[in-house]
Design goal:
The protein is of the alpha+beta class and 398 residues long. The protein folds into two domains: 2-180, no CATH class; 189-218 and 254-396, Nucleotidyltransferase, domain 5 (2-Layer Sandwich), CATH 3.30.420. 40% of the residues lie in helices and 23% in strands. The protein has eight helices and 17 strands. The strands form five sheets. The chain has a six-stranded mixed beta sheet. Strands 1-9-8-2 form a four-stranded antiparallel beta sheet. It has a three-stranded antiparallel beta sheet with strand order 3-4-7. It is globular and about 90 Å long. It comes from Brevibacillus gelatini. In the C-terminal section; belongs to the transposase 35 family. Residues 315-377 form the Cas12f1-like TNB domain. This is Transposase. InterPro entries: Cas12f1-like_TNB, Transposase.
Length: 398
């Protein structure tokens, strides 16, 4: 047995008083974020340095708040540090267009760790710690806890709780540890994955099994979202900002955003589950995945293609594949995929395809373009003695 982190999102039910305090939590967290960014910018202008973890904790300790406690403040400071580290890493990798945090936030998700929340499993409730206050006699006292009620059973061994607002409702994202049985694959076959924006997952195994899972459903949801949000944004631009009509369009814009986000999460989950089931069926023990990180950096392929590349959620797909395959005892390794779709499997000639089919100008062999990419990724990491066939299993998300 091994322990794995899992997350579930539950709709929050609470009284009006606690609901107002939940809103104040995210407002005060945003205030902490803004002050951390402001202090970092000021220090950099003066000394060309940035605050470290301890100096941030000292800074946020002196900021007065009505609802959130010291742990919430420190968590926001950690998120600021993580944001700077992520941007710094991306810039070192060549993404010089990435900017350090600079926008002023109105709301920011508040987090509590397990030491600052108390669960009542019989009543299905969680109580959240808030800031202390000084009474009329000058005595410091603990504030009244925020009580959250849930219709769904709350999990055991909770580690963190994050408060998020979506679709005019508050949700609790609960991370918890659970025991998972370690599984061992029954065979030792190897496969490779070529990720794509049209065909989301294309895979070839060393037993000549070929699979294509189309991502056209995901693509159509994004196209619908982009079209509707553009229409609403155009209407909002013609209204007086923050007027009644502007708020009406803004609520519709947020509704489209949250609805399509749920649809995308569902279909990406289904997509990765389909591949995991196929890998189990074929006895796969090791999967090589072509890492396409940074594919949209430093290139201008036109407005439409740039938008599709920027909205392509390959990072989420790789993360879910790694997580789900690991639960089945299958190793997942990210490898370099440069020029994998351009090398002919038959003669090794380099030829850039112009459509969905790969036609070699040297030996005149013809293959599916994405199958060629997956085959080359597998061949570069696990030498093969066969070429791609025309027998491919084709799956689609419905």
């Amino acid at each position: 047995m091994t322990q794995q982190y899992r997350t579930m999102r539950l709709l929050i039910n609470c009284n009006k008083s606690d609901l107002k305090r939940l809103q104040m939590c995210n407002k005060e967290s945003a205030m902490i974020w803004n002050k951390c960014i402001e202090a970092n910018n000021k220090l950099y202008e003066e000394n060309k340095k940035l605050h470290n973890r301890n100096s941030f904790f000292t800074l946020v300790k002196d900021i007065e708040t009505e609802v959130i406690c010291s742990n919430n403040k420190q968590t926001v400071a950690k998120r600021v540090i993580d944001a700077y580290k992520a941007i710094s890493k991306a810039r070192k990798a060549g993404r010089v267009d990435e900017k350090y945090p600079y926008k002023i936030k109105k709301y920011f998700p508040t987090e509590w760790d397990y030491n600052y929340l108390f669960c009542d499993y019989n009543k299905n409730e969680i109580s959240l710690t808030v800031s202390r206050f000084t009474d009329a006699n000058g005595v410091a006292r603990n504030g009244k806890q925020i009580r959250l009620k849930f219709k769904t059973s709350i999990p055991q061994n909770i580690k963190t709780l994050k408060l998020i607002y979506e679709g005019e409702r508050y949700y609790a994202c609960i991370s918890y540890l659970t025991d998972v049985e370690e599984k061992q694959p029954s065979f030792s076959n190897v496969a490779a994955i070529d990720l794509g924006e049209i065909h989301a997952i294309t895979s070839v195994s060393d037993q000549q099994d070929q699979l294509i899972i189309t991502g056209r459903k995901i693509r159509s949801i994004k196209q619908f979202r982009n079209k509707k949000q553009a229409e609403l944004r155009s209407k909002m631009d013609k209204c007086t900002k923050y007027s009644r009509q502007w708020h009406k369009y803004n609520r519709a814009w947020q509704y489209i955003k949250s609805k399509t986000r749920r649809q995308l999460d569902y279909h990406i989950h289904k997509l990765t589950r389909m591949y995991t089931d196929w890998a189990k069926e074929k006895g796969i023990s090791l999967v090589y995945c072509g890492d396409v990180t940074g594919i949209d950096v430093g290139s201008n392929k036109g407005t439409n293609v740039n938008q599709k590349l920027s909205q392509w959620e390959y990072g989420l797909i790789m993360e879910l594949l790694d997580y789900k395959l690991r639960l089945e005892g299958i190793r997942f390794i990210k490898v370099n995929e440069s020029y994998s779709s351009q090398i002919c499997p038959s003669c090794g000639f380099k030829n850039k395809p112009t459509n969905r089919n790969y036609c070699c100008s040297n030996c005149e062999e013809e293959y599916h373009r994405d199958i060629v990419g997956a085959w080359n990724i597998l061949n570069m990491n696990h030498k093969l003695d066969f070429v791609p066939s025309r027998n491919t299993k084709y799956l689609r998300i419905s």
